[in-house]
Amino acid sequence: QICHGGMLMTVMDMGLGIGIANFIDKAGFSPTMSLSVDFLAPARVGDWIESRAHFAHATRSRCTVHGVMIGPDGPVLRANGTFKMPRENDTRFKTDTLMLPELIRARRAARQS
Description:
Order of helices and strands: HEEEEH
Strand order of the largest sheet: 1-4-3-2
Distance between the termini: 42 Å
Radius of gyration: 15 Å
CATH topology: Thiol Ester Dehydrase, Chain A
Strand content: 25-35%
CATH class: Alpha Beta
Oligomer: single chain
């Protein structure tokens, strides 16, 4: 069975957005402004899929990120996204449901050890 491309695209969108929190080293949800996806190969149900985000460019209000999703046989899709940068003390984009604060704290702790 082949995974639906829309599901893969959603996972990639989340991976890029969460990757921004790691790049800028602060918790915050970055809403997607634009997302372009190229499907390169099929992914099968049950495959281990990994998404990797690469920081490209940032301004005060937006960030551009490139990403690739890799399956057992190589790249499955690549994506380019533009995301709204979170501002300090902006409560519109809460991260409680994504557990981003915990992820950021764990990453910082790993860097310090």
